[in-house]
Each structure stands twice: as C-alpha cells, then as structure tokens.
Input
Amino acid sequence: MHPIVFQTDFFGLLDEPWTLHAYGLLIAFGFMSAMMLAKRQAEREGEDPEQVIDLAFYLLLAGLIGARVVFILTQLDKYTRDPLQVFMFWKGGLVFYGGFIGAAVYLVYYSRRYQINFFKFADLLVPFLAMAHAFGRLGCLCAGCCFGKVTEQAWGITFPIGSMTHQAHQSSGLVSIADLPLPVHPTQLYEAGAELLMFFILVSLRPRKRFHGQILLIWLAAYPVIRSVIEVFRGDKIRGLHGGLSTSQYISIAVAGVAAVLYFHLRKKRREADEA
Output
C-alpha cells in the first residue's frame, strides 16, 4: 500500500505540501491509455478519432460525478457532517457502477445530440473501459480501500497500521491500535485481473461481432457476475449490505436485467434488418 507517490512544497513556495496520490495517478494513467487506444480503434472503424477524444473527456467527467455521487449516498451522514470531503476524491470514494451509469447516460445524450450510433460507439469504447477499470482497482490497492475479508490463504495481504483495513479491524476488536491488521483477500487484485482478462476477451471478439451492441452486451452480462462474486470476498462495510446483498450486488442484478432486455431488443432489430 503506497497511497502517496511523492510530496513537495516547491522549495517552500507552498504553505502545505502538494501531494501526488497513487489512486489519482493510476486512474489518470488508465484513462489516458484507454483514450489513446480508443482513438486508434476509431481510425480503424472509420470514425473521427478527434471526436472520440473529445467524447472520452466528457465521459470521464460524467463518470467521476456519477461515481462520487453514488459513493456519497452510501455514506451520507459522514459527508453531511463534513461537506468539504465531498471534493476529496483522491482519498478514495468512487463507486464504479455510479461512474458507469453517469458515463452511459452522457453517451446516450451525446448520441442523440450528434446523431451517432450509440451501440457502435459503446462497442468501440467498452473494452477500454474494462482496461481503465483495472488500473483504477490498482489505485484502490494503493489507497487501501475496497479491501477484502480476513483470510488465512497464502495470498492474503496485510495493510499497514493506520490503513482503512486497520481501522476496520480495530473497530471490530480484531486487533489493537498498535497491531497490524489481519491478512485479507486482495479483492482489488481479483477485480483488476478479471477486468484485464475481460479487456482481452472483448478485443478478441470485436472482429467477429455480428451487430452493434454485441460487445457492450457481453460486458453487461459478464461484469455483474464478476462483481457479485468478488463482493462475497469484500470486507469493507461501506458496501451497504441490505438483506444479505451489497449495494453493488443489487446494481449488478439490475445491470444483468438491462443486458437481457437489450439482447432481445437488438436481436429483434437484427432479424428485422435481415428480413428487409
């Protein structure tokens, strides 16, 4: 866990040190890498690469807003007491599903305004979303958020004193204030690995897709399963358990339902096009 890459006060010019957080750095790296790869793919598909770059920045903004809003809603009492923390997203506090929903809503708006094919652009972008998300989860590992349950497995990881894991274990009476927290499942690495695998699968399937929206549908069907399984191993309480399921698991069920509806809708459209 290395939440801070470096700090500097620029040789005394600043009253407080400027800090580069690993969480934000990895998100930025993932986004820039995804944007450049999306630009290259747009060129291959005969789309305007500059339009894709412009769109990517707006999607990032919409995604960050959505991700932050959903996180704040899960801890509304905390942010009501200290509203300034709303803007401190570099400390962690982004919910991926919120980001995906925010970006998807903006893409729908953008598609209608500029008369582009929503499903074609979604297919173009979603593999790189999976790749960028993998980097985001590595950022979670550095920040110490989204940690797993206590485990005795050999691959369990131990976070330092003062980390979110340590605070959670101390409040639960598992360790004292001077003890290291117990080893936990590296759920951040589980999801990063799954997302990278999904990225390679989606890219390999792209040349063989039969209709626009198919790549998006595969991701919509696969990610809820991945996320729901990983949620079983999560140990942080901010996931918002209700009725035995976390907030993300409920959203996963909804996303899987949307995927099913879209599948039948797009299959019907394809049949109509074939018969025309």
Q: What stands out?
A: The chain is about 65% helix and 5% strand.
